[in-house]
Specification:
Helices cover 30% and strands 0% of the residues. The chain has 44 residues and is an all-alpha fold. The protein is extended, with a radius of gyration of 13 Å.
Length: 44
């Protein structure tokens, strides 16, 4: 992927993107990323 292929946009809700976001989280952790969360972590 080239940098010019990246599109950044603000989301009002992640509901329709939850599958893609979950897959992204899995991929980056499998590639060695360390992910942490700070409270409060709200579920939708």
């Amino acid at each position: 992927m080239l940098v010019s292929d990246v599109k950044i946009e603000q989301l009002k809700s992640i509901g329709e993107h939850i599958n893609e976001l979950s897959e992204l989280l899995i991929q980056v952790v499998e590639d060695g990323a360390s992910i942490g969360f700070l409270p409060p972590l709200k579920l939708f």
